[in-house]
Design goal:
Radius of gyration: 19 Å
Strand content: 25-35%
Structural class: alpha+beta
Helix content: 10-25%
Oligomer: single chain
Shape: globular
Distance between the termini: 47 Å
Largest sheet: 6 strands, mixed
Length: 337
């Protein structure tokens, strides 16, 4: 395997060819221990690409290696008394719908997206209807479209980052995407409620999902043990870009931190999971420090990117006992009106 990471002996049919960027060692070590030692892990015949971990009686983590070499991805499946909810759909590799139905026993399913990233939404086409924050709806439509998977292969049709059978990727088909406002709640039966909580930051309409009965928060990419990339500034071609900044995330996270009595654990979209809720206070503290003084970063990394290959600089500041928050000069405050 090429790249800067060491291999992990997971059970997925897909095999890593190379990484797009290395993970920090905390995230890598956690995933190695989990994937090689966790006794609850199971791979179902219906979809050999997904490693299924049972975190609670009612909660499953569906682990997917990232098809484009970025951080490997979690989907989450909540089993309520009468309905189930799937949080994010990854790339849709393998029979995702069949897997979910087998785990839940065919319960009626509600599918939701945290945000636009291809590793969170391209599997939407495996389902008939998907919900998202209304601020993010158009961005997801722009991402999940015909040809969206083509960049995973080189000019000869060979896999670039992850070895899997191309026929096991979905082909685009129309599905119903429903944008809903902040605070929308779904009932999975018997008062088992899950609430959409808009946070912005990493993406304009980034949303977390609060499982009130299970006391868990599904945090998407606004929480990550590697890099919380929520201050990159406006996304090219994006809609509602005024919410892609640290100030929006800080303001929404401050509201969420006043609700810590409603949940105990956090399940992010990548890497380390089952985190205690007080981590959000540490993230909020770091956001406040950056916004007060954008030059207080711990280190910076220069990247080639954009049209013409111009250099872009991302600053990183450590969150106490966790990973880093990455931001750029134009991602700290909302852009001028």
């Amino acid at each position: 395997m090429t790249g800067q990471m060491w291999p992990i002996a997971g059970a997925s049919k897909a095999k890593r060819l190379k990484w797009g960027s290395p993970q920090n060692q905390i995230s890598w070590a956690y995933m190695k221990q989990l994937r090689e030692k966790n006794s609850s892990m199971r791979v179902y015949d219906v979809n050999p690409y997904v490693e299924v971990y049972q975190f609670r009686d009612h909660l499953y983590g569906l682990f997917n290696q990232n098809c484009d070499g970025a951080g490997d991805v979690w989907m989450y499946l909540i089993k309520g008394p009468e309905k189930a909810m799937l949080v994010d759909t990854a790339y849709g590799l393998g029979d995702l719908k069949g897997l979910v139905d087998e785990i839940t026993g065919g319960l009626p399913l509600i599918v939701v997206n945290t945000h636009t990233g291809p590793d969170h939404v391209l599997g939407n086409v495996r389902f008939d209807r998907v919900y998202c924050c209304d601020i993010e709806e158009q961005n997801i439509r722009n991402k999940c479209k015909p040809g969206a998977w083509d960049y995973l292969f080189d000019e000869n049709g060979a896999n670039i980052w992850l070895d899997f059978d191309r026929k096991d990727l979905p082909e685009y088909r129309d599905y119903e995407l429903v944008g809903v406002p902040n605070g929308t709640t779904w009932d999975l039966g018997g008062g088992y409620e899950v609430e959409l909580v808009w946070t912005g930051g990493h993406a304009a309409g980034h949303a977390m999902f609060l499982d009130k009965k299970g006391r868990c928060l599904f945090a998407g990419d606004d929480v990550c043990s590697d890099v919380i990339g929520c201050g990159g500034g406006p996304r090219p071609g994006g809609v509602n870009n005024q919410y892609c900044n640290l100030t929006t995330y800080r303001d929404q996270l401050a509201k969420l931190c006043r609700r810590l009595d409603e949940f105990d654990y956090i399940f992010p979209g990548h890497f380390v999971v089952n985190l205690e809720n007080n981590l959000l206070l540490n993230i909020l503290e770091t956001l406040n420090e950056i916004i007060a003084d954008p030059e207080c970063y711990d280190y910076s990394v220069e990247h080639a990117g954009g049209q013409g290959g111009e250099k872009k600089v991302r600053m990183h500041k450590f969150v106490k006992g966790f990973g880093t928050i990455a931001y750029s000069a134009n991602g700290v405050y909302p852009p001028e009106e």
